[in-house]
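This part of the workshop introduces the protein records we will be handling. A record pairs a protein's sequence with a compact description of its fold. Backbone structure tokens are a discrete shorthand for how the chain folds in space. The question running through the whole workshop is how a given chain folds. The record below serves as our worked example for the rest of this section.
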Amino acid sequence: MYQQKFVNRENELSFLESRYNSNSPEFIVIYGRRRVGKTELMLKFLENKQGIYFLASTEGDKQNIRDLSSRLGKVINDENFGEIEFSGWQSLFETLFRHRTFHELVTKEKFVIIIDEFPYLIYNNKSIPSIFQKMWELDLKHENVMLILSGSAVSVMESEVLGYKSPQYGRRTGQWQVQPLDFIHLKDFLPYSTEDLVRTWFVCGGIPEYLLKFDTNQTFWDNVQNNVITKGTYLSQEAEFLLNEEFREPKNYKRIFKGIALGYNTLGEICNYTGLDKSMVSKYLGVLRRLHILQEEIPVTASSKFKKRLYSVSEPYFNFWFRYIYPNRIDLEANRNEEVLGLIKEDFPLYCRQMFEMLVKELIMQKHILDEFSFSRIGRWWHKDKEIDIVGMNEETGEIVFVECKWKDVSYRSAENILSDLMDKSSFVRWNNDARKEYFGIVAKKVAGKEELRQRGYLVFDLDDID
């Protein structure tokens, strides 16, 4: 059975409610990557409140103003309002604020104005940020309103709306970047074991729209075959759609994504694989980092001047798509799904080992494990032939935690060996070596004798501890 639901978002709703209940006008910016659930969040917030939700289009100012005025006319119960030919955005809002019905509404309670996909307005009129800044200064900030501007084009929102050089910089009264759902909420979508929920996260991440495409009556692998890799399905085409929507040169971005997904992680390796020159690749990598699809890594203890940086796709769906769907698209076009699924199953344990480290880091940062620690820095560490999956440091307390991630069942003896090797490698980590308190841990699918290991002072977690 396919799903439709609103899950969690307590923190986001609490933030919006607190701003709504303030005693002053509010100018809020909501942004985040596509499909993350911004629209559902804002519609949920708008329930039982007076206000309007408006989805902007790429049709230009004239059509957007006409559509918004029509919607507003219905809200204030004045059909004639929607028939007025407004000369611009400011004329529209000035007329609205002078309307008797609107005045009566805002006298009773705050009026919410949500403009979704605000970047669409900017694409057709680069003056839009200045226009809305002027409207806020002259009109909106003197009314009992809550203006919410939302957008999925993260780079546009960060530069044109939130950026220091934006006309709207300093005018907003609050902002929130909507992130994918935490892993622990996947159980609200699918009746799977924790192990299969983890596998699902490796495919979809915490993007609600993607999770909703899984059929709750199908197994994990049946969903992968029927709802992820099958030609024509939403998830088989979503990455292609997003790339074409976001980028002017999607072909080059695809080459970079594919290279990274296949394990080419340094700037030089990516250049060699793609055949693109260094300056061009650097530019593309910068764009992907700003979109929070790609992450750039240096050893967690290294200075910002460290040169040999590693790049990885930080968005699970993109990682899965470019590792398995994009390279096999000819076979998938020919409906050879069984053959491709066999290839995926054969390689999937290796893919899971790589992704499990990413998930464990998120679980730590979200305080679902190791919640007794706070870290000022957390990440991977490597030096020559030595590597540690996760190192977390607290500059104030001098605490340092070393963690190895194993996507497998680990026996008691194996856990001892892993922890012993980890302790040996930790001596090569240069950070407060004379005055630090060290902790050593392991996170795996299953750890035998974990309670005894915990009694010996080790930090040990497996899938049974994640709920």
Observations:
- The first strand starts at residue 26 and ends at 31.
- The domain at 369-465 is CATH 3.40.1350 (Trna Endonuclease; Chain: A, domain 1).
